[in-house]
Amino acid sequence: DTNESILVTKPFRLKGYTVATLPAGVTGDTAYVTDANLPAFGQQVLGLGATTIPVFYNGTTWIMV
Description:
By secondary structure, this protein is mostly beta strands. It is 0% helix and 29% strand. The chain is built from no helices and four strands. The protein has strands spanning 16-17, 30-36, 51-57, 62-64. It has a four-stranded mixed sheet, with no helix packed on it. The protein is globular and about 35 Å long. The protein starts with 15 loop residues before the first strand and ends with a strand. The mean pLDDT is 93.
């Protein structure tokens, strides 16, 4: 069943990348980037900036969350 919940009771860490080094991704992957430029929720992540932000792979591209 793909609708099961996971209870996280301890901190967990996402893997960090620069935008240029993000992997191809599988839908649902999450990570963070350290060089987002012009961050905006739900938009494709662009690099060469100075913002650290979480990202999500939506099946087509990495978007900022």
